[in-house]
Specification:
Shape: globular
Strand content: under 5%
Largest sheet: none
Distance between the termini: 24 Å
Structural class: mainly alpha
């Protein structure tokens, strides 16, 4: 279920606006953080279960851009995690990340069709909201961002694998 905090963030967005609480808690901040957590979690799946994607490499031969599928899945996980982490960064960084993520999701629609378009539309709309958001946000200590990245990475990967081990004990 950790693949879906982005939808809880969307519900929170509408609830905050509907209840008139947007001055207390900025709704775009909530949905932005939810998107970041969702995509960081999903990036770990590219390392934990790359075999889920391997059949797509057979039916969509250009998807791996000529790279070995094993390498491609590892690299895709790193790129997705990094862009997701960037969503919590300063305005220019988060907007750039949202543009790249939206472009990635939109570019998949012609290859994967209507189901992909329907499923990813809410996520694309969230990226567009992040791109359009012009609130200055908090100041970010740029020198600390690499450390924050490492902490976010360790916490996300540890939570994923520990959660998996707890839910699906082996032996």
């Amino acid at each position: 279920l950790m693949d879906y905090p982005i939808f809880l963030g969307s519900a929170s967005y509408f609830a905050l606006i509907g209840l008139g609480l947007e001055r207390r808690v900025p709704p775009v901040e909530v949905v932005r953080w939810a998107a970041a957590v969702t995509l960081m979690w999903a990036s770990v799946e590219k390392w934990a279960y790359p075999q889920w994607t391997y059949p797509l490499f057979v039916t969509h031969t250009g998807m791996s851009l000529g790279f070995d599928p094993v390498f491609y899945m590892k690299a895709a996980g790193v790129v997705e995690f990094s862009l997701a982490f960037a969503l919590i960064g300063p305005p220019l960084v988060r907007r750039s990340a949202a543009i790249l993520l939206a472009a990635t999701f939109i570019s998949a629609v012609p290859a994967f069709g209507k189901i992909d378009a329907i499923g990813h539309s809410p996520i694309i709309v969230i990226f567009l909201a992040i791109i359009a958001d012009n609130t200055p946000g908090k100041r970010f200590p740029a020198l600390r961002m690499p450390a924050y990245y490492v902490v976010a990475f360790v916490i996300t990967v540890a939570a994923y694998y520990l959660g998996h081990a707890a839910l699906f004990p082996s032996g």
